């Protein structure tokens, strides 16, 4: 009966609105929204908000226009009722909200250009020259944006707008934290329910981690540490809305230790957990120019695929707009 209702819901949505939808073939919490037209009608806006509650990763494909940085961020605000509009309008007055630490568009400082791209006079930036950081060239860096940051609140919304993409590579892989959780057995849940992770983002940022397929390895120099910056986070997070389930959010590249375990024990446990319970749920999005992506940053971990896949190509230009939308909705950890 439920399958029949879902079928008719699908038919209704594809007939009643100016766009059509289809669920990702691997991950049921990811939805493609095709042929969305800007400006968006009011009824469509309401329905897109409802869809985002059920599908916390939306990919808008074949839209009728590419958006400016300002249009892009204005569009994303519809998906967070607690969006911090004061911080958007006056970004320099709200240092605790996330300003992009990369090149910023002068009139839209919460949006940054990312990728591998050089151009003059681009949306107010006199000379744009963006390159992938070293950590992302050869590795997967599984993470949730800003989780474990010592000052900033992890945003609810992360957004991408794909402006230019190479013929091969430049993809993004996602894993739903809810999917990880719902596939854990009783034995694993008992072991993991009270697991706490000690996080330090600076060791990764300063290049003191060597990473492998799991996104985790060991600090080069075991004495290199920022003890005042250690943060404790759970492995399993509670739902924030009635639409959500419990979720596993793990950032192996940032983990110092599991509370109560040695460094060696931590490495072994994290690698085993990633291999057997996290990575099997990975799915990849191959971007097309013009794609817009909005996802609940508190429900997914993600990583760009290694940049080496496209950097040696002749058509190696890649450019996307990225934002961590500032929010007033606190994330209790």
Can you give a write-up of this model?
The protein has helices at residues 2-16, 42-54, 69-76, 85-89, 177-182, 186-192, 201-205, 263-278, 308-311; strands at 20-23, 30-34, 57-61, 111-122, 125-130, 157-164, 172-176, 196-199, 231-234, 236-237, 247-248, 255-258, 283-285, 292-296, 300-304, 318-325. The protein is 24% helix and 25% strand. It has two domains: 11-175 and 285-325, 4-Layer Sandwich (Double-stranded beta-helix), CATH 3.60.130.10; 181-280, no CATH class. The chain starts with a helix and ends in an 8-residue tail after the last strand. The protein has nine helices and 16 strands. A hairpin with a 6-residue loop joins β1 and β2. By secondary structure, the protein is of the alpha+beta class. Strands 1-2-3-14-6-16-4-5 form an eight-stranded mixed sheet. A three-stranded antiparallel sheet has the order 13-7-15. Residues 8-13 have low confidence and may be disordered.
């Amino acid at each position: 009966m439920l399958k029949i209702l879902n079928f008719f819901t699908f038919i209704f949505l594809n007939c009643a609105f100016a766009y059509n939808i289809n669920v990702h073939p691997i991950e049921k919490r990811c939805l493609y929204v095709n042929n969305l037209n800007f400006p968006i009608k009011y009824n469509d806006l309401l329905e897109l908000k409802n869809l985002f509650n059920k599908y916390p990763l939306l990919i808008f494909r074949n839209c009728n226009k590419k958006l400016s940085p300002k249009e892009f961020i204005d569009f994303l605000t519809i998906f967070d009722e607690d969006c911090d509009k004061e911080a958007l309008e006056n970004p320099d007055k709200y240092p605790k909200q996330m300003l992009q630490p990369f090149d910023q568009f002068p009139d839209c400082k919460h949006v940054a250009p990312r990728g591998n791209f050089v151009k003059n006079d681009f949306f107010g930036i006199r000379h744009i020259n963006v390159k992938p950081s070293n950590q992302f060239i050869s590795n997967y860096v599984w993470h949730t944006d800003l989780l474990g940051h010592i000052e900033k609140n992890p945003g609810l919304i992360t957004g991408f707008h794909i402006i230019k993409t190479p013929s091969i590579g430049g993809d993004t892989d996602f894993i739903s934290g809810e999917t990880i959780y719902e596939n854990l057995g009783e034995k694993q849940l008992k072991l993991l329910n009270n697991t706490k992770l000690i996080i330090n983002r600076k060791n990764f940022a300063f290049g003191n981690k060597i990473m492998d397929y799991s996104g985790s390895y060991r600090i080069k120099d075991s004495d290199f540490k920022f003890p005042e910056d250690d943060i404790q986070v759970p492995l399993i997070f509670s739902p924030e809305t009635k639409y959500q389930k419990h979720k596993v959010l793990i950032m192996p590249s940032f983990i110092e230790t599991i509370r109560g375990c040695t460094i060696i024990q931590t490495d072994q446990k994290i690698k085993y957990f990633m291999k057997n319970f996290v990575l099997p749920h990975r799915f990849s999005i191959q971007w097309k120019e013009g794609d817009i992506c909005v996802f609940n940053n508190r429900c997914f971990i993600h990583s760009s695929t290694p940049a080496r896949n496209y950097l040696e190509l002749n058509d190696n230009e890649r450019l996307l707009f990225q934002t961590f939308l500032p929010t007033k909705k606190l994330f209790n950890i």
